[in-house]
Amino acid sequence: MLSSNEIMQLLESLIWLLAGVGVFIVGMNFMGDALEKSAGGGMKKLLEKISNNRFSGVGIGAGVTAIIQSSSATSVMVIGLVNAGVMTLMQATPIIMGANIGTTVTGVIVALKNDYFNMAMYLLAFAGVMMGFFKKEKIKIAGSLCSGLGLIFVGLNVMSSEQAFGNPLVEELFTGIFRTIDHPLLLILTGVVFTALIQSSSAATGVVITMVGTGVLSLDLALFIILGANIGTCVTALLASVGANANSKRVALIHFTFNVTGTALFAVLIWLFREPAVNLLVSVFPGDDPMSLQMRVSLFHVIFNVSTTLLLLPFVKLLVKYSCLIIKDKTEEKDSLSLRYVDDRLLSMPQVALMQVKKEMDYMLGLVEENINLSFSAMDTGSAAQSEKVAKNEEIIDFTNSALTKFLIKLSVNLEQSDEKVIGSYFHVLNDLERIGDHAENFHEIGIEMIGKKISFSENAKNEIKGMRESIMQMFDISKDAFENMNKERLPELTALEEGVDVRKQELIANHFERLAEGNCNVDVSPYYSSVVLGLERVADHLVNVGYSIKNPTGSQK
């Protein structure tokens, strides 16, 4: 029976332990965010190389996870990419497998901990804090990286100190707990629950390695907890797939199935051959010093993930078929009022998110161009047959503008200065596209009103408007080419067309008043004609802004 003083000591030690875990996780997040920012371009290039080669997929998954220090985060990214249509299930599955290999890097880093290394990490953390005071973005990112790496070891040392795991009372408490649950299934369940709670298998592995290093947990028990941590890390991906499309749910299912299968196979082997397995790890890292004890766990973690990947990699197609069998495609039509290429899960990958935003804006530009063409059908044919299509397109344009604006605001929080300029230009382009859509809707409404009043433009007026529209459609082609392909070569041609439209506007208005004076035009169509000509001139202005946005964030030629 513990005395009141011992109870207070135990509570204090548990608080120290929680503080150590907290600092460790904060350090991991700091380091992961800094690495992601510094390697944003590299990650973008990696993802651009995604192919159906399963070995390159494993390499990409391992590389990205090693950078951001979280297999859960990689899985969430992949779910977002699949949901946005960037990659297929066949491409995503090897990346998920590789992510499990990449997450072993954290365990190796943690296992290297010793007194000299700790001192160097403390100094590194201090240096990182000092670097954070610099104005240059690259120095700040490097500072965050140093601070994060240092904090990881600060947290580890807090956990292994005399105030935490080093306290005999804490050691006795955990030893008693693990003696009680000394059963493979219970130990695996412990790993699952602990990892699911802290949402990071890397952090869970780090804690387990520290416990083995301090003698609180024996190696044979730690192996089962590590296996459970690999299932627990799937919880994040499963939660991320909620509300996503069928393929994204399949990615989460494949991730879960892969980890459960690997865990089951290794659990049986270690259950049957526990002593030989432990002896093998001890023979590789002999000695009773903390580093040797910790490296044994880290080595097992590496062996488990690499072996599971090699074992299941040939069955990628089978895993994909299995996921499609379990999760059926929805039969109902996809809601048109949803973004096609952008997903909130991509916010953790700013470079990729920007690529997808541009694809979404390209789609929006196509809808705007379509509506400009459709909007004149009522005037040209005297029929309202296209009204429903014009209204539906305008609804999608308005939704896309609003949804992308909100997404860009979220995305702008963690971007470098150069990317902030890109986002600034995207805000302006979205506004221009939305305004062109409004003009298209106005043109259509003019046509409908003229049908209702049974009036129409004269043949001369129709030909004049047709000529102006042809110039506008040429401008659409150039603006699309410039924006989609970053093509600056035809921008002078875009400017020349816009200036021509300005001149033509003046000529058309003058011609119109001349026809009115000569009695060759119905006075009732006068306001409609002027509105169409002025509206087309405004559309030309907006198209120039879209084209020139690749040179100037505001889209201004000047």
The N- to C-terminal Cα distance equals 82 Å
Structural class: mainly alpha
Helix content: over 70%
- Report the count of strand segments: 0
Helical segment tally? 24
List low-pLDDT spans: none
Largest sheet: none
Radius of gyration: 31 Å
Note the overall shape: elongated
- List the domain count as a whole number: 2
Mean pLDDT across every amino acid position: 83
How much of the sequence lies in strands comes to under 5%
Give the SSE string. HHHHHHHHHHHHHHHHHHHHHHHH
Describe the model.
By secondary structure, the chain is mostly helical. It contains 24 helices and no strands. Helix 10 packs across helix 12 and helix 20 (387-411) runs antiparallel to helix 21. The longest helix is centred in the C-terminal third of the chain and has 37 residues, at 417-453. It is elongated and about 110 Å long.
Compile the SSE list and pairings.
Layout: H1 4-38, H2 40-48, H3 54-68, H4 71-83, H5 89-102, H6 104-111, H7 115-131, H8 137-160, H9 168-180, H10 184-198, H11 201-214, H12 219-232, H13 234-240, H14 246-272, H15 274-284, H16 290-312, H17 316-326, H18 350-375, H19 377-381, H20 387-411, H21 417-453, H22 459-485, H23 491-518, H24 526-548
Helix pairs in contact: 1-2, 1-8, 3-5, 4-5, 4-13, 4-14, 5-14, 5-16, 5-17, 6-11, 6-16, 7-8, 10-12, 11-12, 11-16, 12-14, 12-16, 13-14, 14-16, 14-17, 18-20, 18-21, 18-22, 20-21, 21-24, 22-23, 22-24, 23-24
Please describe the structure with a list of short key phrases separated by commas or semicolons:
558 residues, Methane Monooxygenase Hydroxylase, Chain G, domain 1, mainly alpha, 2 domains, 0% strand, 24 helices, single chain
